[in-house]
Design a protein that fits this description.
Radius of gyration: 26 Å
Shape: elongated
Strand content: under 5%
CATH superfamily of the largest domain: Tetratricopeptide repeat domain
Helix content: over 70%
Pfam family, one: TPR_14
CATH architecture of the largest domain: Alpha Horseshoe
Keywords: TPR repeat
InterPro entries: TPR-like_helical_dom_sf, TPR_rpt
Number of domains: 2
Number of helices: 7
Structural class: mainly alpha
Number of strands: 0
CATH topology of the largest domain: Serine Threonine Protein Phosphatase 5, Tetratricopeptide repeat
Length: about 150
Protein backbone atom coordinates (compact mmCIF):
# COMPACT_ATOMS: atom_id res chain seq x y z
CA UNK A 1 0.00 0.00 0.00
CA UNK A 2 2.77 2.43 0.95
CA UNK A 3 4.64 1.38 -2.17
CA UNK A 4 1.56 2.22 -4.29
CA UNK A 5 1.24 5.65 -2.69
CA UNK A 6 4.93 6.36 -3.33
CA UNK A 7 4.56 5.34 -7.00
CA UNK A 8 1.45 7.52 -7.38
CA UNK A 9 3.26 10.48 -5.79
CA UNK A 10 6.23 10.03 -8.12
CA UNK A 11 3.93 9.90 -11.16
CA UNK A 12 2.06 13.02 -10.03
CA UNK A 13 5.29 14.91 -9.38
CA UNK A 14 6.64 13.81 -12.76
CA UNK A 15 3.50 14.95 -14.58
CA UNK A 16 3.36 18.29 -12.78
CA UNK A 17 7.07 18.80 -13.47
CA UNK A 18 6.52 18.22 -17.18
CA UNK A 19 3.61 20.64 -17.19
CA UNK A 20 5.72 23.28 -15.45
CA UNK A 21 8.52 23.05 -18.01
CA UNK A 22 6.43 22.75 -21.16
CA UNK A 23 5.98 26.07 -22.94
CA UNK A 24 2.67 27.82 -22.57
CA UNK A 25 0.74 28.60 -25.74
CA UNK A 26 1.74 32.27 -25.55
CA UNK A 27 5.44 31.34 -25.34
CA UNK A 28 5.44 29.21 -28.48
CA UNK A 29 7.04 30.92 -31.47
CA UNK A 30 4.55 32.45 -33.85
CA UNK A 31 4.53 31.55 -37.51
CA UNK A 32 6.45 33.76 -39.90
CA UNK A 33 3.24 34.98 -41.52
CA UNK A 34 1.68 35.89 -38.19
CA UNK A 35 4.81 37.77 -37.12
CA UNK A 36 4.83 39.76 -40.37
CA UNK A 37 1.14 40.56 -40.07
CA UNK A 38 1.54 41.68 -36.46
CA UNK A 39 4.67 43.71 -37.32
CA UNK A 40 2.85 45.57 -40.10
CA UNK A 41 -0.11 46.25 -37.83
CA UNK A 42 2.15 47.57 -35.06
CA UNK A 43 3.92 49.83 -37.59
CA UNK A 44 0.58 51.21 -38.83
CA UNK A 45 -0.42 51.95 -35.24
CA UNK A 46 2.89 53.74 -34.69
CA UNK A 47 4.26 51.21 -32.21
CA UNK A 48 7.72 51.20 -33.74
CA UNK A 49 9.35 49.35 -30.87
CA UNK A 50 6.93 46.43 -31.15
CA UNK A 51 7.12 46.45 -34.94
CA UNK A 52 10.91 46.32 -34.79
CA UNK A 53 10.86 43.44 -32.32
CA UNK A 54 8.41 41.46 -34.45
CA UNK A 55 10.40 42.01 -37.65
CA UNK A 56 13.55 40.84 -35.89
CA UNK A 57 11.74 37.69 -34.75
CA UNK A 58 10.49 37.11 -38.29
CA UNK A 59 14.04 37.48 -39.62
CA UNK A 60 15.25 34.91 -37.10
CA UNK A 61 12.80 32.45 -38.64
CA UNK A 62 13.59 33.42 -42.24
CA UNK A 63 16.84 35.41 -42.45
CA UNK A 64 16.96 35.28 -46.24
CA UNK A 65 13.68 37.16 -46.73
CA UNK A 66 15.01 40.62 -47.52
CA UNK A 67 11.69 42.44 -47.01
CA UNK A 68 12.28 42.33 -43.27
CA UNK A 69 15.45 44.38 -43.70
CA UNK A 70 13.55 46.96 -45.77
CA UNK A 71 10.99 47.26 -43.00
CA UNK A 72 13.67 47.56 -40.31
CA UNK A 73 15.21 50.31 -42.45
CA UNK A 74 11.94 52.25 -42.36
CA UNK A 75 11.62 51.82 -38.62
CA UNK A 76 15.23 52.88 -37.99
CA UNK A 77 14.75 55.91 -40.25
CA UNK A 78 11.68 57.02 -38.30
CA UNK A 79 13.60 56.56 -35.04
CA UNK A 80 16.46 58.76 -36.38
CA UNK A 81 18.91 55.86 -36.30
CA UNK A 82 20.29 56.70 -39.71
CA UNK A 83 23.40 54.50 -39.85
CA UNK A 84 21.28 51.51 -38.89
CA UNK A 85 18.60 52.46 -41.43
CA UNK A 86 21.20 52.72 -44.18
CA UNK A 87 22.62 49.32 -43.26
CA UNK A 88 19.16 47.72 -43.40
CA UNK A 89 18.31 49.37 -46.73
CA UNK A 90 21.59 48.22 -48.28
CA UNK A 91 21.00 44.67 -47.02
CA UNK A 92 17.54 44.80 -48.57
CA UNK A 93 18.99 45.95 -51.89
CA UNK A 94 21.72 43.30 -51.88
CA UNK A 95 19.22 40.62 -52.92
CA UNK A 96 17.39 42.79 -55.44
CA UNK A 97 18.79 46.20 -56.42
CA UNK A 98 15.75 46.87 -58.65
CA UNK A 99 13.72 48.42 -55.85
CA UNK A 100 13.31 52.12 -56.64
CA UNK A 101 11.38 52.76 -53.42
CA UNK A 102 14.35 51.57 -51.35
CA UNK A 103 16.74 53.78 -53.35
CA UNK A 104 14.26 56.61 -52.76
CA UNK A 105 14.39 55.89 -49.02
CA UNK A 106 18.19 56.03 -49.07
CA UNK A 107 18.03 59.42 -50.80
CA UNK A 108 15.46 60.67 -48.26
CA UNK A 109 17.78 59.48 -45.52
CA UNK A 110 20.64 61.55 -46.94
CA UNK A 111 18.40 64.62 -47.20
CA UNK A 112 17.29 64.18 -43.59
CA UNK A 113 20.87 63.84 -42.40
CA UNK A 114 21.96 66.91 -44.36
CA UNK A 115 19.12 68.91 -42.83
CA UNK A 116 19.99 67.84 -39.30
CA UNK A 117 23.69 68.60 -39.84
CA UNK A 118 22.83 72.04 -41.17
CA UNK A 119 20.54 72.76 -38.22
CA UNK A 120 23.31 71.68 -35.88
CA UNK A 121 25.83 73.95 -37.62
CA UNK A 122 23.46 76.91 -37.28
CA UNK A 123 23.23 76.34 -33.55
CA UNK A 124 27.01 76.83 -33.41
CA UNK A 125 26.98 79.98 -35.57
CA UNK A 126 27.16 82.89 -33.15
CA UNK A 127 26.65 85.53 -35.87
CA UNK A 128 23.37 84.11 -37.18
CA UNK A 129 23.81 85.88 -40.52
CA UNK A 130 24.77 82.98 -42.74
CA UNK A 131 22.46 83.50 -45.73
CA UNK A 132 23.75 80.46 -47.59
CA UNK A 133 22.91 78.15 -44.71
CA UNK A 134 19.47 79.69 -44.39
CA UNK A 135 18.74 79.28 -48.08
CA UNK A 136 20.06 75.73 -48.14
CA UNK A 137 18.00 74.88 -45.08
CA UNK A 138 14.84 76.21 -46.78
CA UNK A 139 15.55 74.05 -49.83
CA UNK A 140 16.21 70.94 -47.76
CA UNK A 141 13.03 71.45 -45.74
CA UNK A 142 11.09 72.00 -48.95
CA UNK A 143 12.50 68.73 -50.32
CA UNK A 144 11.41 66.93 -47.17
CA UNK A 145 7.88 68.36 -47.40
CA UNK A 146 7.71 67.18 -51.02
CA UNK A 147 8.88 63.72 -49.92
CA UNK A 148 6.15 63.58 -47.28
CA UNK A 149 3.43 64.67 -49.71
CA UNK A 150 4.47 61.98 -52.20
CA UNK A 151 4.30 59.30 -49.49
CA UNK A 152 0.71 60.21 -48.56
Amino acid sequence: MVKSIVVICIVIIGISGCAATSPKRSELPESYGQLVQNARHAYQLGDLSLAESLWRQALELRPTVQQGYCELGQISFRLHRYAEAESHYLRCLSANPKQPEVWHNLAALQIRQATEFLLQSESHDSTGDNEQSGELLKLLLQLQRTELLQEQ
